[in-house]
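cron nightly-structures :: item 1 of 1
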Amino acid sequence: MNNRHEFKTQKQKTLIIKTQCILGKEKYDIVEWEYPDKKILTIQRKKYINNDGAFNIDEWLNTIKAKRIELLKESDMMMLSDRVMFMTDDKVTEWVDYRQALRDLPDTIRALKPTGIIDINWPVKPE
């Protein structure tokens, strides 16, 4: 499964692509980061398969929650009172709905009762 995500961090690195693969019982995330002057490929080992061969949804959701927290932190400043007072009511509602959808994502995924990794429909950040 290939997911293309692009977002900036404080160090101005951009996550270009994240490819997930399972080798045996081990889960690996292959992540390409782009910095202003170079690209770096990292391989991160994740265990999403239990010893009995069953899919470990809790471990996988922890990875989803980590990204969700990062996206919530990135949008925190949009909810500050000095920002909100200059937004239209519709724009405030967009940001509130976006942040709530991020908070609800793990429960939404759990309700699907996946037996393996599924594509995530991440909420779209308002402009």
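cron nightly-structures :: done
The chain has two domains: 1-53, 56-113.
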